[in-house]
Each structure stands twice: as C-alpha cells, then as structure tokens.
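Give me structure tokens for this 183-residue protein.
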Amino acid sequence: MSKVCVFFAEGYEEIEALTVVDLLRRAGIETKMVSVTGEKSVTSSHKVTVETDAVLSEVDFSQVDMIVLPGGMPGTKNLEACAPLMEQVDAFYEAGKYVAAICAAPSILGHKGMLKGKTACSFPEFESHLEGAQVSKRSVEKDGKIITARGMGCAIDFGLAIVAEFLGQERADALAEKIVYRG
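Here you go.
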C-alpha cells in the first residue's frame, strides 16, 4: 500500500493541506499529517489549529512513497526553513520518489533546481520562483515524479491527481463522482 506524508508548518494553507489528506484517506491511501514544528498542534495562516498524526522526527521515510508540501504563508517559508524536511525532499528527488507541492510551495522545488526542464505550476505570484521550468497555467501539472498545483482553488484537482498516480485515473474519477466534484 502507498504511504503519503503531508507536512504542516505554522502558517500552512488549511484547504490545500486538509483537502489532500481527506481525498487520499477516502481513496484508501495511507496518509499521515506530519508537523515540522516539533509539536503535534499546528496553526494555519487563517488561525485553524489541527492536531497532526506525527512530528517530523517520528517519520520513517524509508516507508514513505510521497512527500506533499502545502502552500500558505508563512507556511511555505517555514517548510523551506526546516532543514531535516529539506534533506528528505532532496533525498526523494535524488531517489526518483514522488514530491508534490501546491500554491507557493512549488517555489521550494524551484529554488532547489528540481523543476529545470519540467512543466510546473504554482500560485501566480510565485511563478518566477519555478527556476528553469516551463510554467503552466493549468490547475495541476505532473512531470515525472513531481506534481504541482496552482493554489487553494485547485486543491481537489491536486488531491485527485495524487489519487490517480497511486490508484489509477478510474479510481480518481470514481472518487470525484462520489464527492460530487465537477472539475
């Protein structure tokens, strides 16, 4: 079974993070919410506090198939400032494992040079940070093992793209129908 970790930093965008968690869990994909703060409670950019499943130091990354980075401010900056998480993002990229980011968070991948020669998207104000990428205006882009999305309004598309990657497009389409989504 696939295992996905969605990372929460102070100031995360709650719709981007929790929509992915919800959709993946509905699809039966093992999904953990992981705090990078050292505490399980993390507060979003809009003052919504959630209790995560784990803190970063508790994650066995050898058992994880995908890292998901939600956007939000200052959440994206706080994710990028978390050296242990960034080491794992680098390791996943080098190993050809999945990394997904939405809204401002694809900028992290751009800063790391991971988008060179790839098609990617992000929140419009962060497109200049997608260094070396062919910037797309589509809601979600998948290029190799990297999935990016533009913002909060694309969170369902982003979550469904991850479901499709692990379980196939038919399962993602069935989930979209079940939640009455007309993307």
